[in-house]
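Appendix B. One record, verbatim.
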Amino acid sequence: MVSALADLARLRSDGAGLYGSGDRLFSYAIYGRDSVTAGESLLYLRPDVTRDVILTLARLQGTVDAPVGPHSNEEERGKIHHEHRTLYVDGRRIPPASERLLRQLAGQWGGDETSLTYYGSVDATP
């Protein structure tokens, strides 16, 4: 139990929910579907984490219908994001490997130099 709580603390961001993984490349990314699953699992044990997850999903929820085409983030009104990445996490710059991945994905999915939010999934919106 102590190890699981330590892992949870490592994957949690102040006010930004849960990161999808502790792995070098997948860390510092917030995945919509995975956040929902984790929030449901933690509801009775850590309702504070579930609250952060819900607020993060609401903050990142689609508000416009993005144009279709290359470099589109596929945003639609009401849609939950698939993946969100940002250059700074809890006031610290992300590691170089994660930054390279952020820039690569931003080029594909219409992000900018500091963040991207991609909505192109069929299973993130409950």
